[in-house]
């Protein structure tokens, strides 16, 4: 089974877990994801592989506690098994040959951006990083990013830590200061990736985004995760999750991601009542 | 003395008014007296044409004879010699175009109800809680099967019976393939599928779920590193086709695969399910096959008014006649000679209407069916808050993308010879992964054939290596 080996709160809403999954650890590449169920009869949810250790046979996931299933996952203890943990799914990120890259991470998306920044740094790419959070309590991986970035800026929506503003403010400045990037990699909320893509399109800088649509099987058999890319229908679980940000129809993706909002809210409330928790 | 009644002994069904509000099985099966009465209609023809109509070659007159004598357990034993999933096939096979189409009694009157009798024997066996005969002597050879659908399960059973150590690798968290994610509970109760799979496990077949071959392990690695001497690819045709119409990505538009997976595998129809499903008020299902009927009948059970939109007429509907009748009894509305051209949405990105054109039938095309043509200026709107696209599926490209030297045809099907051997030595394939979407029993037939071919291949390799 897929035993939980470590569990660590990175901030009040974000948790890191290390799971025993030797076969997945053997194959995992940055940019790929897994699908898990937190309990028998539970739903299947996708989570990006934040790190892997081929020797130890482990996979690290970092998740934000946003609803019933992630709350349930958070309530599992070290030593307990996950009934389903399948992967590595999706196509790996392509980072070979890049000389200078700006990595933009938003919120829990930083957990996915970090292994990419690290891999880029290790292959000798110059890495400039901007990470953005709603406020200081939600900051993750600040030190980790500092180590792998040649230039790093932390910003927050309310100015409670780092600079106040949006990730796009910093990126625009850097570009206007004359930084020339081969590529921008943006990972975070759909709205953030949309505005990063709109900005870089003006400067003609290739931009890769990591899409996070609703998924069920994650193997290409249902099309629940379909998105429009350059006018074509793509399945994020097999064709992605990485896509050219200038070609993605973000408004459609944002709309589709809200399909089950009412159901999700009800499930979250039920679980909070059941467990005697306050709604986050 | 044979029962010379011209019609099949009737099987009771759940009342249509009641069943369209629940997911319980529609067809209730024969009681013992009914089964014996129907079994008496078999004439025990010496040439038994019915057997030639069965893709796995069940000894039909022999098992029916046992039912007529009241020995349903012996009948089951005879069926199980050739079929890995008797309780499944008795329910979902299109018998009217297979075994029953060859039945002599069908020349004048109705064929013997072979499917219902097979189901009766299998259900009687399951009720007794008995399993198949135990494990076979291990012959020391390891075989890997990719996909735990009907084809993979059948191949596994035949190989296990011969003593092979068989491991099935399944991508989803439950084995069964289309039997668990596709065919709804009201046609095929999932407890029956589980029971059949338990039987295979008792034969010594190992099933590893959550294993996406091509991602976690490649076919080459199974053979070179894990020591499997042969691999059977039975990964099915699970890639959904879309219509590629404007508006198809609006909220409320599903592929039939997604809609059915949520309902059947993830049990989204149950009140306390963790997996959501939309409870729409008016649903358009596009397509006319069995999958379209299943999706429509599921949507009806979730409380919707349901329309089947199909571009040809009633005579060309590819779904089984019985399924179409059941759908009609349950209040599904058939909008025939209609073709969707665009999906309209509201300001929140939800579907609100499907624009259709009327069609008329022209000359027959290559498939022999009359080609539908658009009636000029006939576009109109059907309001709907959900649309399900059920126009077919293709083989998933993952395996051939990740397996060098595995040849596929233009439609993505794996190319094999008549025994299921692929272009790659030691690798066999069958079922929908080869043919594209077809039936459960054809997939089982392919699994059976491949098992024989794999046995011959492995034995030949063994002799070859001894002589070296």
Poorly predicted runs of chain B: none
The CATH superfamily of the largest domain in chain A is known as Nucleotide-binding domain of ferredoxin-NADP reductase (FNR) module
- What would you call the quaternary organization? heterodimer
User: Which fold does the CATH topology of the largest domain in chain A refer to?
Assistant: Rossmann fold
Beta-strand percentage of chain A? 25-35%
Describe this structure in words.
- The complex is a heterodimer of chains A (280) and B (468).
- Chain A has 280 residues and is an alpha/beta fold.
- Chain A has two domains: 2-89, Beta Barrel (Elongation Factor Tu (Ef-tu), domain 3), CATH 2.40.30; 100-210, Nucleotide-binding domain of ferredoxin-NADP reductase (FNR) module (Rossmann fold, 3-Layer(aba) Sandwich), CATH 3.40.50.80.
- Chain A has helices at 22-27, 68-74, 110-122, 142-148, 167-176, 190-203, 236-239, 250-256, 261-275, and strands at residues 2-11, 14-20, 33-37, 45-53, 58-64, 81-82, 84-89, 100-106, 126-133, 151-156, 163-164, 183-187, 207-210, 226-229, 232-235, 242-244.
- In chain A, strand 12 (183-187), helix 6 (190-203) and strand 13 (207-210) form a beta-alpha-beta unit.
- In chain A, helix 2 runs parallel beside helix 9 and helix 5 (167-176) packs parallel to helix 6 (190-203).
- Chain A is globular and about 55 Å long.
- The mean pLDDT of chain A is 94.
- Chain B is 34% helix and 16% strand.
- With 468 residues, chain B is α/β, with parallel strands linked by helices.
- The model of chain B has no long low-confidence stretch (mean pLDDT 93).
- The longest helix of chain B has 28 residues, at 440-467.
- The A-B interface holds A 23-24, 27, 37, 41-44, 68-69, 83-89, 216-217, 219-224, 226-228, 233, 238, 249, 252, 255-256, 258-260, 263-264, 267 and B 171-173, 209-212, 215-217, 238-240, 242, 244, 248-252, 254-255, 257-258, 261-262, 266-267, 273-276, 278, 348-349, 396-398.
